[in-house]
Sequence to fold (195 residues):
Amino acid sequence: RVIGTASLALERVQLARPDPLVRPADFDGPGRRPARPFDGELYPRAPVGTCSRWGFSELRVLGNFADANQAHSLLEQLARDPGVNYVMQKWHWRVGALCEMAPDGRVGVDPVCVLGLNQGRGAVIYLRLRTDDLAGFRRYDAIREVLAHELAHNEHAEHDSRFYKLMREILSEMNRHDWRRLKGFRLGSGNAGAR
Ligand code: NI
Fold:
């Protein structure tokens, strides 16, 4: 069986299969040198940030507003949010595009999802960023809560008990891993104010 080098490398990254002919880098038997930390070339770390395997590939805002750049900053803030990143890594989610939802678009289609929409199980997630009067933007935390709802739709299409269980889990983990909420939190105290 012929295996291309690219697919072989990919296989190593994905499955981390040991090669029987090569002593593992972390081999640490008697009389051996201690394991050296791997340089990360073959096993990319899962970084916190937008360059990870998991996260959002693209951010899109509506072009017909003068403050479109502000809307873009909001989406960027969400994509970089440490709490959001944590859940993206944990569930291995890659969302194709995180988009601003048209203010009047789709409202009422789904009584629970008037503020957001998940298309194709995470292919595209739309979020309403602006207030109803279009005078400004909705609160960041409120938008992020809708994002948690839409992310739960990556796994469950219906608003059933499994959906809400996952949504609550996502929300609580978003909050627990958001360092901005951890004022007064001491490293090592173990309980990071799950609210
Ligand atoms: Ni929904």
Observations:
- The beta strands are 55-56, 59-60, 94-95, 97-100, 116-119, 124-127.
- Helices lie at 5-15, 68-80, 82-90, 140-152, 161-176.
- The chain has five helices and six strands.
- The radius of gyration is 21 Å.
